[in-house]
Structure formats: C-alpha cells, structure tokens
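Milestone M4 deliverable, item 7.
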Amino acid sequence: MRGRSTLVVCSSCGRKIPRNKAVVFERGISLSTDTHDANDIRFFERQKLYYCISCAKHRGIFEKKKRLAAKRREETV
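Output delivered:
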C-alpha cells in the first residue's frame, strides 16, 4: 500500500505510529460470574492492542511471537 497509512496509538506509551509499523498483539479477556450453576454467565472478548516498536521490545512481545511461530512449525512437522 502506497501513501500515508493510518495512525494508531500505542497502548503503552500513547505514541502515535503508522499502522504498518505497529506491532499488533491480541489479548483474550475472560469474564464470568463465580456461580457454577445454570445461571453462570461467561463472556470472552478478544482485544487488539497496538504497540510501538520500543514498547513491544521492552514488554517481550517479539519473543512471544517468535516462540508461538516455533510451536506452530513443530505442530505441522
């Protein structure tokens, strides 16, 4: 894609960065009531977070993605 890409806000530091340079990390959030009966309500949501390069490196998200990619390669072989 050519031209100016849309800006996203880093979830950690608030810096505005282009979407094509941002590191995307999806986090699952699970909420439920603690009653284990028929009225138990469970809610699962996926949240897409954008990080700038420096914050992603500091939080270790690059390493997590590298490990996940290695696991996927092992499963296919």
